[in-house]
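Issue 218. Parser rejects a valid record. Input:
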Amino acid sequence: MNWQIHLPALLIAVPLLGAFAAPAFANRRLRDVWFTVMIAATTVIAFLLWRRVGTEGIVVYVMGGENWRLTLPSGMKLPIRIIMEVDAFSAFMALSGSIVSFAGAIFSLRFLDRTTGGEKFVALYFLLTAGMLGMETTGDLFNFFVFLEIASVASYGLIAFWRNTPEAIEASFKYMLLSTIAALMVLIGVGILYGRYGALNMAAIAKSMRLGLPEKVALALFVAALAMKCGAVPLHMWVPDAYSQAPAGISCFLVSVSQASLYGLFRISFSVYGRALDTPAVAWIIIVFGILSMFIAVVMAVIQKEVKRLMAYHAVSQTGYMLLGVGVGLLALTHPQAMSEYGFTAMQGGIFHIINHAMYKGLLFLTAGSIFYASGTLDLNRLGGLARNMPYTTVMFVVSAAAIAGLPPVNGFVSKLLVYESSFAVHPILTVMALVTSILTLASFVKVFQSAFLGPARARFSEVREVPRSMLVGMTVLLVAILWLSFMPTWSLSKLVGPAAQALVDQAGYIEAIMRSGL
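Output the parser choked on:
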């Protein structure tokens, strides 16, 4: 039997094993080896799963059944077991998140040398990885809720890992409060759909979906809750505190974890409701979330004086491009001509921006961590002249800052250009707002570069040196990904982004993979 049929289960099982065994590795060297090996194994599994989906189509995996792909045993009309359904969009998200998880883990190794309880950090990190990957690969709404909670609980501990600082405790408490509200809203939405259709499987619900008042209430709860979890304005209040107070490796990883909630929002909108949405209201709500997130967050970022807090607001702002692109695609979903003229291009832009953002924003947070590791501060009024002492960190900051500003030929330029072109077809003001946001983003990162890396050498930083090798390796992983996406845009669109966008649009294929599997 080909062991790769079990890749969906291994994608969750390996990080869970890493989490449960981590407390046994109190020895620092053994802990680092366990952390590195298990997170590397998770990344390799995600890559193999992405490649398998690319060659064989949607992968379905039934846990605890007679057969791993028998979703409807004899006599059953609805799937009832724990089913994982991995299409090109799920595989794309899992691969992107796994790469960022690997980079954040390698970067964090030396950070852990400065604290106690490193094995607890590793355990929570693996739980967070398992929660994120579970959200992106499950075919079941209730299990989506379970994995959402696993990721949230792990995040509380990691955000408050520097527990000797009141700000970290406050940030974690704020995130816990808002996440609990969001989780409750998701659970109520799941309960409403279960009461209507007697099923929890997304494909089964989608097959029977009829848009009535209960379904609209459930959708409103899903959209509000997942917009809050992905940090869309005006529900972004937890993001600046959480990202700025968490250790740098966690801030890097939280970018991808937040995108798992964005994945849930898109999956439910397209695959569960899809063509049953006979109103453009939901698409316009997502577009408005996108515009508000882009513009308000970038304005808030420009006035920040602390590097990670500035970057946190930019994380919110960049989420706006993804919401705008995929929102325009949802607007065109029931209009074939509009979908062919601009809708699919918009979705490609939004989905391409997901992986671009994960890589360059992750790298930006790691460069901020390097600055803090070496200098002990992230205050722009105190920093200056670090380019002389930290040349590698400086190069990585410049590349990632150019990417987030959308400067050609770096990867952010391609995804933003697709969003600009396609959103113009809906209304020119959408493109204008996106362009203004990019200009303000560029201004913001020029300010950081000038304040932190340029200028005369400062006596207080005369002893500052480049960060340790493992931290540079963590950053290099994301730098290589950025360069690959930048100089291979055609490959990226045809192999990564295009299949993911097509899978999201293909509601019939998503339903059929479950409701006909094994018959």
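Fixed in the parser; the record now loads. The CA atoms of residues 104 and 250 lie 7 Å apart.
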